[in-house]
Amino acid sequence: MTTRRVSVPHLKDLRQRGVKATFVTAYDYPTAHFADRAGIDLVLVGDSAAMTVLGLPDTLGIGMSEMLVFARAVARATSRALVIGDMPFLSYQPSDAAAVRNAGAFLRAGCQAVKLEGGARVARRVRAIAGAGIPVMGHLGLTPQSTNQFGGYRVQGKSRAEADRILDDGLRLQEEGVFAILLEAMPAAAAAYVRDRLEIPVYGIGAGPLLDGQLLISHDMLGTFVGDIAPRFAKRYVDLGSTITEVFAAYAADVRAGRFPAPEHCYPIDAAAEAELRGLCEAVS
């Protein structure tokens, strides 16, 4: 039986029916495979890979070459989830042509859509990409590629004026053709204020429960993120980091004690050939 892939119309239908969409990041084949098998609706090949996979201090240091490697791996692993390529810093800002070219590269890599950060200031880029037939998701609120302007990772939309500014950006993006918007690091009331005034699906990461779906970073969810950032919205469902460390330590102990490899981990050989080879080893020693 063929599994139908989640589509943009399907996401609109979920909003209309009041069904929450599930949304996680993945950067490799196994994680994407497990997410797809679990029935996750959207998988983001996030530029957060800069921090979660490459160990960089922020998202600014990753480029298209790395992102496309991750995108191809994720795309190969999925048959149901809608895969979104996260456009990295300077892949869309310089020009409409660069934006369309790089967005198209994500589709050639197997993604079904792209995401980019910013509101009115990237409206032309959104129009160009959507005009080329490429589905675009917007990203408002805390936009990590602009943290130098914000002065760090700061919650957005904490006043009516800030919420109105984000809403204005959302309305502009909607007008230019985005199929959905992601709101990051906003109070729940402010995020709901924006969501209720838009006609497209609005998802959140750290933006409260009153939206059309939720995104979590897979490394946060699984307890495998190595770094100093620990946002309050990053729910840890399991501490795989500790488990992985314990497994590596147990393996090292077995090797040092001679417990691994054991006979069951070795390939058999004819008894006569084994005796001959052992004899030759003893002769050399």
Describe the structure.
The protein has 285 residues and is of the alpha/beta class. It folds into 2 domains: 8-238, Phosphoenolpyruvate-binding domains (TIM Barrel, Alpha-Beta Barrel); 243-284, no CATH class. Helix content is 44%, strand content 13%. The protein has 12 helices and 8 strands. The protein has helices spanning 8-17, 29-37, 49-52, 64-77, 96-108, 123-131, 147-150, 160-176, 188-195, 218-222, 240-257, 271-284; strands at 21-25, 42-45, 82-86, 113-117, 136-141, 180-184, 202-205, 213-216. It has an 8-stranded parallel beta barrel with strand order 1-2-3-4-5-6-7-8, surrounded by 6 helices. α2 packs across α4, α5 (96-108) packs across α6 and α8 packs parallel to α9. The radius of gyration is 24 Å and the shape is elongated. The model has no long low-confidence stretch (mean pLDDT 96).
From the structure above, extract its key features:
single chain, elongated, 12 helices, eight-stranded parallel beta barrel, 2 domains, TIM Barrel, alpha/beta
SSE topology sketch:
Blueprint: H1 8-17, E1 21-25, H2 29-37, E2 42-45, H3 49-52, H4 64-77, E3 82-86, H5 96-108, E4 113-117, H6 123-131, E5 136-141, H7 147-150, H8 160-176, E6 180-184, H9 188-195, E7 202-205, E8 213-216, H10 218-222, H11 240-257, H12 271-284
Parallel strand pairs: 1-2, 1-8, 2-3, 3-4, 4-5, 5-6, 6-7, 7-8
